[in-house]
Specification:
Keywords: Membrane, Transmembrane, Transmembrane helix. By secondary structure, the chain is an alpha+beta fold. The chain has 3 helices and 6 strands, in the order ββββααββα.
């Protein structure tokens, strides 16, 4: 379970467990509540990625058997990792990726969501 001690926010870094994010590259913070649409899209995309990797490994007639199984397996694995709440930061990457929202922590528990909201406001206070 995620607890307040997992977060450390100072003038230079945001630290969650072993991951560090420089404050100078953070532009925003939010707590996102994922909808059914978000979950469905993630499940389909992960299933298709796993299926395409298997298709590349086993081309031809063997791919016709293994790709559908890989699609189902990928979807099941994605379904097992679904989380309702995410703490996200808007992070400025140093390469061509640019500015994007990055999830730094996920949970299904409402009590942890409240902790995420406190951490997001703390991050916003330190970046402005």
């Amino acid at each position: 379970m995620i607890v307040a001690d997992d977060f450390q926010i100072n003038d230079t870094n945001v630290v969650f467990k072993r991951d560090e994010y420089p404050i100078s590259k953070i532009r925003g913070a939010r707590v996102k509540t994922n909808s059914l649409k978000d979950h469905a899209l993630r499940i389909v995309i992960i299933g298709l990625v796993v299926s395409s990797v298997v298709w590349m490994i086993f081309p031809g007639s063997l791919g016709f058997l293994t790709a559908p199984l890989a699609l189902i397996l990928g979807m099941l694995l994605a379904l097992a990792t679904v989380r309702k709440y995410e703490l996200q930061i808007e992070f400025q990457h140093i390469d061509e990726t640019g500015l994007q929202w990055v999830s730094i922590a996920k949970t299904n528990k409402l009590s942890v969501k409240e902790l995420f909201e406190k951490q997001a406001s703390e991050i916003l206070r330190n970046i402005t």
